[in-house]
Amino acid sequence: MQSHNSFSINLNQQKSVAKKRLKAIRHNDANALEQVKLFHSQPETLTPESIQLADVQHALARELGLPSWSKLKAHVAELESHKLAINNQANPLDAELNTLHVRCGHDIQRQLKTCGFEGDFLPMIDPLCIGPIPSNEKGFVAIRAQYVVDTLLPAMGRKDSVQEVAQFEQGNIHTLLDQQYERIVFWVEHDAYDQFMLLRGLSLLEETEGKIIEIIEFNQFPGTERFIGFGQLPAEAIRSCWQHRKPVTAKLFSQAKRCWQALQAPTPLQLVNLLEQHELDGLPNIKAVIKRHLQELPHSESGLSFTQHLALQILNEQNEPINVKDWFQKYQQQEPIPTLGDVMFYALLLPLVQAENPLFTVDSLDKNWWEQQVNISENGRACLNGRSIFSQDYWVGGIHNLANSRWTWNHIQLSSLHHLVTG
């Protein structure tokens, strides 16, 4: 029996839920009424006496991520038609052009074949959301490879050389630019991993002529859980995304180039300028991503990045040590724009335990990293409370933060951002 997917909505089930809620409200269930009011577009009009089934259905549709009950019915019917097409092995959707599907991971590689695509798949997996983003194209691949080898591979138990990682990435670039492909389609979500991969990909394709370049971009999808990425979706939902692709126009290329150059800059000022002065309508999710990216700069009262601060805050709320796997899951639930994989999360937090005065403790670094038991230290609590500033040497895109020279702010008002030089 196939396991239930949170993004496969059963209309009959939702009708039943709506009827049960209405019945509960008619029996003066205050919680049921509050649940409906929470998502209804006119909550102030609802009372146990006046509420109708249509009101409950309307709120339920909005709770699932759709504006109305009729839109919910249309969405369910559409996914059913895609499921039928998959079962009937309909012609591949991308068959008319030799297509390359580009994604920042392997999560939908098999799904694409299952749900009706025959094009090649390119996973561009270098996580540009962490570590340096060099401005020098000549040294770009080597610098990124060094970062991956130093920071990520040890946690994964891999011993690839810098040269091997660089060669793999160079091979990806070669595939992206391969003349055989008539169309390139980027599948991206609303987080920094995807968005920065898109900017990088478009920067590499800037001089390309005679190709159709398209983007399939989603920041939410109707369902009963939070949408983080395409990998959560059933095959019919992924197939339905195809009709929402948009062409990369000259205007979009220009906006992407401006963002990419700002990310590579040695100060955050270009990024702030982009947020405050520029229209970036071709990249609807990039402003939120840039703001979140800037929050990885040290906090003015703790020296911690937003990721580190949130992770320590979670540890501080625990009554006993927890393992890294659970720590990551709790972090993921509270992260405003989930971006990091578990290995990236661990890699960003490791410096806090390797410091002279660690901000958290680990029972044994010899264990598999996800099994390690972690606990906040007194120094970690002091940092969280603004009584101690953690000094660290790390990169946020093109910005190199040093213990004695760093860009810092309160992670809320960009006007608080300033360059701090200490003796």
Automatic annotation (TrEMBL):
<protein>
    <recommendedName>
        <fullName>DUF1835 domain-containing protein</fullName>
    </recommendedName>
</protein>
<dbReference type="InterPro" id="IPR014973">
    <property type="entry name" value="DUF1835"/>
</dbReference>
<dbReference type="Pfam" id="PF08874">
    <property type="entry name" value="DUF1835"/>
</dbReference>
<feature type="domain" description="DUF1835">
    <location>
        <begin position="101"/>
        <end position="215"/>
    </location>
</feature>
